[in-house]
Amino acid sequence: AAKSRGRNRMERFNEELHARVLRRLRIESDLRIALREAQLHVHYQPQVSLVTGRVVGVEALARWQHPELGAMSPAEFIPIAEECRLVDELGWQVLRSACHQLAAWRVLEPTLSMTVNLSPRQLDNPAFVTELQHLLAQTGTEPTALCLELTESALMRRNSDVVEILTQVRQLGVYVAMDDFGTEHSSLSRLRELPVEVLKIDRAFIDGLPDETGDLAIVSSILSLAYAMGKHVIAEGVETVEQALALCDMGCPVAQGYLFARPLAAGEIPALLGQPLWQAPSGWKARLQPA
Length: 291
Ligand code: C2E
Ligand code: MG
Ligand code: MG
Ligand code: MG
Description:
By secondary structure, this protein is an alpha/beta fold. The protein has helices at residues 2-36, 74-83, 87-108, 128-139, 152-156, 162-172, 188-193, 203-206, 213-229, 241-249; strands at residues 41-49, 55-66, 70-72, 113-117, 146-151, 175-181, 198-201, 232-235, 254-255, 264-265.
């Protein structure tokens, strides 16, 4: 009996593994088609000034509605795209859409900025900076209105010439943000040598506000560090009024999260521009925003 139980468990394990491998292969081949046929689209999540309550920027997030599997999470398909070298094409499609939208929306909100997620694999393309420059020119994008987000772990990689490439990106006028700040082994000396202007505080630390003293301490330290280094800050994943008020208390200038708006289809953005999505408590003043 024990033997057959063991065999059953083995069979179940094999079946699960088999199913997972099949799903992975299917996603890979369907993603190839989706990219060729431009089936992916982009949603945009507002970033809100905690001072004025207005939308100051939007983050572009890739979306894929699979014909049979339904809405796929980028957390699932981006890593697959990275493994099978599709992320370069995917990244350009997202950047192109984002730049077109940005140009259109800046007519309505002249200071609006756009942040776009970048895979470290995209920087392996030796033509990255040249192609970025072309895209900016083609779409009439103001370079200083665009910000490229790389995760902390991507920026800590030392194998490719990240500092050199990002320095060239900065020379075009485009900003660079460190996404998910605080979740990986950030080396502060590395932060000093990188041309990064924006730190995005990971949702993991916002979750525990305002009660967890550990999270309060971490968020407040990141804010102090950012001000001292002259960097801009965006808090990610703000879901409750209490969290937003705690961020106000600590002088955080900009936040993003379901409390203000979820990632939205492009057509829904214009209605949100120019009107407050958040009301700061009366008498509250943000600490000076760094240049
Ligand atoms: P990220 O860049 O850190 O993006 C923030 C994620 O948090 C998004 O998930 C967003 O929908 C979600 N989010 C925003 N506000 C809240 C909130 O208040 N509560 C909660 N629980 N979640 C919130 P999403 O869209 O599923 O994207 C997941 C990750 O996939 C992104 O994390 C980013 O790393 C990656 N990604 C998405 N689009 C692209 C892309 O075009 N290129 C690349 N390379 N990566 C992308
Ligand atoms: Mg991001
Ligand atoms: Mg993030
Ligand atoms: Mg993330």
